[in-house]
Design goal:
The glycine cleavage system catalyzes the degradation of glycine. The H protein shuttles the methylamine group of glycine from the P protein to the T protein. It holds the Pfam family GCV_H. InterPro entries: 2-oxoA_DH_lipoyl-BS, Biotin_lipoyl, GCV_H, GCV_H/Fam206, GCV_H_sub, Single_hybrid_motif. This is Glycine cleavage system H protein. With 130 residues, the protein is of the alpha+beta class. Helices cover 20% and strands 35% of the residues. The chain has helices at 31-37, 84-87, 91-94, 119-129, and strands at residues 9-10, 15-21, 24-29, 40-44, 51-52, 57-63, 67-71, 76-81, 103-107. The strands form two sheets. It has a six-stranded antiparallel sheet with strand order 1-2-3-9-8-5. A three-stranded antiparallel sheet has the order 4-6-7. A hairpin with a 4-residue loop joins strand 1 (9-10) and strand 2 (15-21). The longest helix has 11 residues, at 119-129. The radius of gyration is 14 Å and the shape is globular.
Length: 130
């Protein structure tokens, strides 16, 4: 079973969402997703100031196995990116819910949060994939 922090929200496409306050949310990929992808070799992040719509592919995680699109679960403006990943993409593998975060977004539609999965529902989707 994957590590699934109960305080986070998730998407069916394995992104996680953590509230930071003032309408800003941190986005990353789940422990399950990084394990499936394997060792990260490069992460292509959006630019600060980019405006994205929920469901847009806005980043790419490249591993030794494959390149995978990362989708933004929320609509808004990118306000920060994890620049540490430029030199250390493996942080996504070693600490997917901490130092391996991808970007932060200031959301423009709070109702989108209702469409995210809680930790238990996300675990249910993983169980169905097996």
């Amino acid at each position: 079973m994957s590590n699934i922090p109960s305080e986070l929200k998730f998407t069916n496409s394995h992104e996680w969402v953590r509230p930071e306050g003032n309408g800003v949310y941190t986005i990353g990929i789940s422990d399950h997703a990084q394990a499936m992808l394997g060792d990260m070799v490069f992460v292509d992040l959006p630019d600060e100031g980019d405006t994205v719509d929920a469901g847009d592919d806005c980043a790419v995680a490249e591993s030794v196995k494959a390149a995978s699109d990362i989708y933004t679960p929320l609509t808004g403006e990118i306000v920060a990116i994890n620049e540490e990943l430029e030199g250390q993409p493996e942080l996504v593998n070693t600490d997917p819910y901490g130092d391996g975060w991808l970007f932060q977004i200031r959301i423009s539609d709070d109702s989108e949060l209702d469409e995210l999965l809680d930790a238990e529902s996300y675990q249910d989707t993983l169980d169905e994939e097996e």
